[in-house]
Amino acid sequence: xxxxxxxxxxxxxxxxxxxxxxxxxxxxxxxxxxxxxxxxxxxxxxxxxxxxxxxxxxxxxxxxxxxxxxxxxxxxxxxxxxxxxxxxxxxxxxxxxxxxxxxxxxxxxxxxxxxxxxxxxxxxxxxxxxxxxxxxxxxxxxxxxxxxxxxxxxxxxxxxxxxxxxxxx
Amino acid sequence: xxxxxxxxxxxxxxxxxxxxxxxxxxxxxxxxxxxxxxxxxxxxxxxxxxxxxxxxxxxxxxxxxxxxxxxxxxxxxxxxxxxxxxxxxxxxxxxxxxxxxxxxxxxxxxxxxxxxxxxxxxxxxxxxxxxxxxxxxxxxxxxxxxxxxxxxxxxxxxxxxxxxxxxxxxxxxxxxxxxxxxxxxxxxxxxxxxxxxxxxxxxxxxxxxxxxxxxxxxxxxxxxxxxxxxxxxxxxxxxxxxxxxxxxxxxxxx
Lengths: 169, 254
Description:
Chain A has helices at residues 3-9, 12-22, 26-42, 53-71, 100-109, 112-122, 128-135, 139-157. Chain A is an all-alpha fold. Chain A has 2 domains: 1-79, RNA polymerase sigma factor, region 2, helix turn helix motif (Rna Polymerase Sigma Factor, Chain: A); 81-169, Arc Repressor Mutant, subunit A (Orthogonal Bundle). Chain B contains 8 helices and 8 strands; from the N terminus they run ααααααβαβββββββα. In chain B, helix 4 packs across helix 6 and helix 5 packs across helix 6. The radius of gyration of chain B is 27 Å and the shape is elongated.
């Protein structure tokens, strides 16, 4: 096994976890991982040694996923909805403790940009600067997506309909 | 610097949740939350979100990584750890003949088509006893299965339906002797399993008659048809296997 294989391989479980949180279905999630790995292997020479390999790999996955989402426009169920259109009544489930199951449904209601930030921060525990690098957006954008995404999710999971969201600076 | 803050900056609240504040700022936000129950409630909800995300997705970390995510073009398929293990198990069950044979195949002495039948038999005995993970992609995702394996083998594949009691279980990607190969698994109501092993056959782009080989209990009918080589394996009587092989052939050549 060469060095590229070994270095990249260490990240496969995390890439799979992130992929699964972006696309639920296992086969499709692993398709995304596979596409990511193939591109990473093919472009490993472009990775700057000493820089953050995880951020580089996640950025590749982000780009592929973003393209897939665009290509999936024909399948509206997969599309992130415009926030203003979200008015989804959800049953009150405060008694469910961690509300793990509801989390899955609630995540689906988030626009993909907010979901990505929430997952990279909450699940991958990346620093905000790292998330900004992965998504190629300024840190300020990461922060506003994060706070909107979290509040959004809180409202959904609290069983409220989604009000027109206030803009959080 | 003051020990108290006059307003809670939204970014600070987020960074507080994520442990990305310096200690002073962290303490300041903490002090704020102690006397602002609404914000404290939000902070607690956000923390629970993180915990729920981990609860939901962390199990993926401990899943076995599917073989198709291994580096393509493996140097030698027996160097992959899972397969080495599987191969040892298979050798034990098939017996020494196969060990001798694999040696021969690697030395390049055995005829290619026989090597193919043996690989199919090996894959059959490795995967058919699997209870929990007999296939990588199940029959419920047949369209995905077909598309994925077609992509990996580089030619459009058809998944035959055997009818006559054998239902498709699903399929998986395997390393063949010179590139990716596919295995489809079928099962009848008694749990009897047949596998169809498919590889691309660039060198011998032709058509051959059915040939038959037998390894211990496993019979294999194999043939080449256009871009693919096929091998149908099963622990069943030869006439029954031939009958199914003919069904497969007819399905692929309507």
